[in-house]
Amino acid sequence: MPKSVCPISKTIQKFSSQPAIITGKNVLTYRALEERTQTAQDFLKRSGIKKNSRVAITSPASVDYIVALVALWRLGAVACPLNTRLPAELLKDQCEKLKCQVRLTDLSFGRTIPTKQEKAPKIFLDQPATILFTSGSSREPKPAVHSFANHYYNALGSNENISVRAGDRWLLSLPLYHVSGLGILFRTLISGGAIAIPAPNEDLAQALRKYKITHCSVVPTQLQRLLAQNTKPPQALKVLLVGGGSIPELLIENALDKGWPVYITYGLTEMGSQVATSTAADLRSKELNSAKILKFRSVKTASDGEILVKGKILFLGYLQHNKPKLPLIKGWFKTGDFGLAVSKKRLKVFGRKDNMFISGGENIQPEEIEKYLRRFEFVKEAVVVPRKDKEFGFRPVAFMRINGNFFLKTAQIKESLQHSLPKYKIPVQFYPWTWEYSTGESLKLDRRLLSQVVNQAK
């Protein structure tokens, strides 16, 4: 049986005259992308990169970054995009941990097409394609190994739910060293759409209009900042995909009321990005409690409520002793999230299993408390973490970003929560929250940092 081959080269050929990558300076067609890829591929091959070579990439998002990725996959190499915001010493340690043979920092491959034109090499679906570190917002980052099939089928399932076509433009609003950023690349690359690369620190609202964006992915913090500008949704925008952690219902309701085409999604690095995503019908009915389980994914919940997943998009495993090791329980991967799979078609997500703690013998899920806190219109953000307590073991405390007088507002919150939550779930202390408590470029909340702050305070 021959190995399955990804038809990505045929896709590039089919849409040769269509825009593939858009920047502030120019538009690169699929034909030009093919030419640039051949140049990079020739350069990398002459540099000694071959099948199964691991290549670290530490560079800002650019046209050449995407070119490098496609060229590496055609050579059968494994791309290891690393977080450029990390300290130099930590980047060095990650390269050594992954045993990367080469580290690319300068992606200038030249512009001369090789004199000997060769047919584009086949990209096999089962070949290892990437090694990505998990976000590490609640635990130590782990190197996750993905095959090309993991990314490819994740994109196919996503595109079946949210259409991407030639002429559409998806903004690269998330970094390529995260699975969510790579998901944007794959969704556009297999559909003939274009990926738009904004300038560093370019304002999101301005970028949506400047590049005539039709699709955009954001985390809740980015959506909050977007709505704070009181700008209207651009006419071209068809999809605003929101994911990456706990999503405040009031935030989504506010966005929908203002006309933003919001789709919510649940996913994880180990599943190549999206697992369940809302539909166009959900958008019309403003359904916020569940999302559709996408094609090529299987989902169920364990007896304790933990979400279990498997399917074509499940990663090859965590890199251990230089080989991927996939931790499965009877064929299923434990996500570490609590939820409910409804009729194998819809998924409700309640929160992280490792966020839960026990206070006086009672289980406390922080996301439940956060949900009530965010219902107050003046609460812009809320995070609940455990604080050590001699009598109860742990007690809940909350970090909040509030409009208005913090002391007066928290007093009002305490009084109101008595009608919604049992006493043991009401935070015993409230702290002001700032953007410094997010994890860098991903803008995810760093619960470990918040726990350290509150438990180290005297």
List the SSEs and their pairings.
Blueprint: E1 5-6, H1 8-14, E2 19-22, E3 27-29, H2 30-46, E4 54-57, H3 63-74, E5 78-81, H4 88-98, E6 102-104, E7 123-124, E8 128-133, E9 143-147, H5 148-161, E10 169-171, H6 179-189, E11 194-196, H7 204-210, E12 215-218, H8 220-228, E13 239-242, H9 249-257, E14 262-268, E15 273-277, H10 280-285, E16 291-293, E17 297-301, E18 306-311, E19 317-320, E20 323-325, E21 333-342, E22 346-352, E23 357-359, E24 362-364, H11 366-373, E25 379-389, E26 393-402, H12 406-417, E27 429-432, H13 447-456
Parallel strand pairs: 2-11, 4-5, 4-6, 10-11, 10-12, 12-13, 13-14, 26-27
Antiparallel strand pairs: 1-7, 2-3, 8-9, 9-19, 14-15, 15-16, 16-22, 17-18, 18-21, 19-20, 21-22, 23-24, 25-26
